[in-house]
Recover the amino acids of this structure.
């Protein structure tokens, strides 16, 4: 009888333990399903955001392609261009004012462009090494813009025919140890490109 009581007691512990384990397992499964659902929702949200970003990038690529095609169509014919005139104008320290000597060179450039209506001009601003690189880039831009404005004002050269850039101090024509290097480097270089004749 004693053995039977022990067996019944063991059996109820096992059955009771299974009930506890079953509830625990179900609880863990539900928690895992909740986490999995949250992860799936997060992945879906990321996938949707990525798709929207991909669509945006595709639209941007198409727009860029269209603009590139337009630019190439406008540039057709320029592959046969060559330099037909070049000159240089110098500036005083920390200045972008056009001097009398600079005016004479710019007048020659303007006259060349008038004689060659299909020509374009490249206007590049330069500085000496005084000052910071950032300041010199801005000063080079101001010098190039002053030359461009002179050609527009005096000769009516259309803006689309003039291309400006600033090199600041990066492309010196004279090295610092040369005599008068700083004044030689404070300049705008001009190149007129026209069709080969």
């Amino acid at each position: 009888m004693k053995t039977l009581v022990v067996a019944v007691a063991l059996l109820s512990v096992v059955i009771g333990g299974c009930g506890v384990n079953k509830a625990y397992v179900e609880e863990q499964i539900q928690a895992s399903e909740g986490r999995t659902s949250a992860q799936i929702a997060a992945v879906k949200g990321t996938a949707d955001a990525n798709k929207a970003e991909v669509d945006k990038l595709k639209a941007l690529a198409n727009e860029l392609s269209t603009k590139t095609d337009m630019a190439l169509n406008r540039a057709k014919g320029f592959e046969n261009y060559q330099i037909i005139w070049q000159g240089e104008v110098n500036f005083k320290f920390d200045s972008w004012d056009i001097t009398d000597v600079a005016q004479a060179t710019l007048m020659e450039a303007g006259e060349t462009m008038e004689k060659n209506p299909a020509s374009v001009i490249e206007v590049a601003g330069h500085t000496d090494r005084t000052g910071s690189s950032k300041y010199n880039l801005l000063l080079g831009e101001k010098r190039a813009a002053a030359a461009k404005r002179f050609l527009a004002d005096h000769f009516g050269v259309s803006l689309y025919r003039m291309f400006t850039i600033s090199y600041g101090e990066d492309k010196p024509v004279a090295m610092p140890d040369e005599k008068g290097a700083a004044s030689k480097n404070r300049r705008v270089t001009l190149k007129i490109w026209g069709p080969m004749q």
